[in-house]
Amino acid sequence: MTVQHKRLGKHGVVVSNLCLGTMNFGWHTSEEDSFKIMDRALEVGINFFDTADVYGWASEHGSTEEIIGRWFAQGGGRRDAVVLATKVYNPVTRKANLAEVNSDGRSLSAYKIRKHAEGSLQRLQTEWIDLYQMHHVDHDCPWDETWQAFDALVKQGKVVYVGSSNFAGWDIATANQEASKRGLMGLVSEQSIYHLDNRMVELEVIPAGRHYGMGLIPWSPLGGGLLGGALEKYNTGRRKGDDFTKEVEAKRDQLEKYENLCKEIGHPPGEVALAWLLHNPVVTAPIIGPRTLEQLESAVRAASIELDAETLKKLDEIFPGPGGEAPMAYAW
Fold this sequence. Notes:
Number of strands: 10
CATH superfamily: NADP-dependent oxidoreductase domain
Helix content: 25-40%
CATH class: Alpha Beta
Radius of gyration: 20 Å
Structural class: alpha/beta
Shape: globular
Strand content: 5-15%
Number of helices: 12
Oligomer: single chain
């Protein structure tokens, strides 16, 4: 099993080519098991951890960051061994706190960025955030305000890099141009949904990120389980539900071809889906969100899979994507 390390886009920081997503911690995964997963991730070479200030919905917002903070607090060099990413944009409500100003809103105001950064730092029990990501774009807040707030955090030593998530290509361009006008580094990464069955980012997000030297951090690499052997699970009754059933039935033909191809090459569907992302040089690190140690081990195995040209061609035929990059994909 081999986890490799690479630069985050054009930037100097080196991260593992798998990013440990923590969204399940404290919700589907107990704190004890979450600790075991994080320890094992470091053992196999995963040094890139991703979270968000709103994770922990089942208990309360921020509880996932608190679990990571308690794991850091055990010592042993854990904090220094991790490139830590979290996010800001959504409202964060806490049972012990009075309602915060604008708590029902989603924004990137200077007020919110400063306040939420302090909250994340406290919950994570750390003095700095390595990658502070905008969880979504805020078209109503001026970039003057947003960049000033992030720049202040960088100068205070509380944030090292700034990234985006769920941005359109033109949002990436606008944000980076506005940062450049102020002499700032700008965005170092984009975290976006990207998997075999959702390749829309290939039109404009990936070209924009490549132009600005950004790393790409795909979330939902298995399409919410659709690419993880969904047809087999559905047929054997291991996973059912109205939404899942509709999705499987709508894509049954593609899934049959995909899962048969995976059997031919001798790798589980979930590992093939991850390997497909890893073969793309613009991808820095897909976010894996293991609920168990076995799911973590499976993701690590995917990092060792080499997909040959014939297999990649067949995957393109099953999941063709948008036809390339804009505007060539739809114009002359």
